[in-house]
Amino acid sequence: DLDTAKQELEEFIPHVRNISDNSIRKMAGRDLARFKQFKKQGIAVKFGRFSQKENNQIRKNIEEFLLITGIDSAEKLLFTSRYPEDKDTINRLKADHLFCEKLSEGIPRPWRLIYYRARKMFDSHNYKGRYSTEEKEKLKKYYALHGNNWKKISELMSRSNLSVAMKYSEIKSAVNYGPWSKEETQKLMHAVEEVIRKRIEKEDGNSLSSSEKSHREISIGREALCHKLPWTEIAAKVGTRFWRQCKQKWTTVLTNKMTKGQQLYRGTKGLQAKINLIKRLYEMKVEDDNEVDWEKLSNAIGDVPKAYVQAKFYKLKVSCVPLWQKKTFSEIIDYLFEEKLPELEEQL
Q: Sorted alphabetically, which SMART domains does this protein's record hold (predicted)?
């Protein structure tokens, strides 16, 4: 029954009582036995970003299921509604060959998260670049007709469900997309200061009076300026920008302050920074970007926040690595080291 399912699942998912009853029933069927099996092996249930190892396991599970059933593509398997003429046959094969169990094999996560990850990995409508003005207008029109039916809207726009949902959340807010004004930047800085002050005062407890708290100067480490800030809350205080814009702008503000306005990524300095970044990443020999200590890596460019380094690496791989979306993290690094590095060193 539902109460027993909640009680048993709570051992593996502490926030389970915040999940809808319908989702709990599905998890009891799809996940509970798997979670217990993983527990016997001493493996904890995971959340957060998927590792390269987990992505590879998803690919393996999908490939094996396609071989067993004869379904000719991962897209047909995961986006069956796009193929109405084959829909009944595919759904029957999925039921007969226990698709849920096969997809989640060897991955200690809730089935729903594995399914969403697989759909993101194999969706041909992903990675289609920026939305044009015409596409944004279409998105508004389709939302007016279909509401939150992202599945329907994604089919009409040939974009992934996640992409159209996130883009609409940006469009519907009173967001400014132009250059930041002085007033907006000040609002951002005050908003960040406010949340950091609250956090520090909470940690201090009642050791200071309210008067002392409001007037004292605070000295904080770099970690507090960059790490796990509540961007949705900060964006609400700024009022005219989306949370991702606030995060990017704050990285720019921090970088300017930490480097005293020096241009670290232009001219010969920029070439040297790219060379250092590629060499350091290659030396790390990691298989997944989750394993990279971006904070430590920041001095490859200069005294900058880790978000700045991550952004520069993203631009580097997008501009220099052909078909980077289909390559693993280690393949991207190898390509940059073997193909791009000699070119940059010659330019320098």
A: SANT
b/e 272-307 (16+ beta carbons within 10 angstroms → b): bbbbebbebbbeeebbbbeebeeeebbebbbebbbb
Give the Cα separation of 186 and 310 in Å (integer).
Answer: 25
Residues 317 and 241 in one domain: no
> Which helix (H) or strand (E) covers residue 245, if one does?
helix 243-258
**188, 246 Cβ separation under 8 angstroms:** yes
Q: Output the CA torsion sign for 233, 237, 242, 247.
A: negative
Measured N-to-C along each axis, helices 2-10 and 21-30 cross at an angle, to the nearest 10 degrees, of 70
What is the predicted pLDDT for the residue at 196? Answer: 83
Indicate whether 73 and 13 sit together in one domain: yes
Weakest mean pLDDT among 186-200, 280-294, 323-337: 280-294
Q: Which amino acid is at 67?
A: L
* 227: in domain: yes
In the chain, the number of structural domains is 4
- Residue 127 within a domain: no
Same domain, 56 and 97: yes
Average pLDDT, the chain: 81
Q: How far apart, in whole angstroms, are the C-alpha atoms of residue 269 and residue 273?
A: 6
| Whether 118 and 28 share a structural domain | yes
Distance CA 308, CA 317 (A): 15
**Tell me, what's the pLDDT at 30?**
84
Q: What is the pTM of this model?
A: 0.47
Choice between 58 and 126, residue whose per-residue pLDDT is larger: 58
- Determine the structural domain holding residue 282 and report its residue range: 267-347
User: 101 with 29, same domain?
Assistant: yes
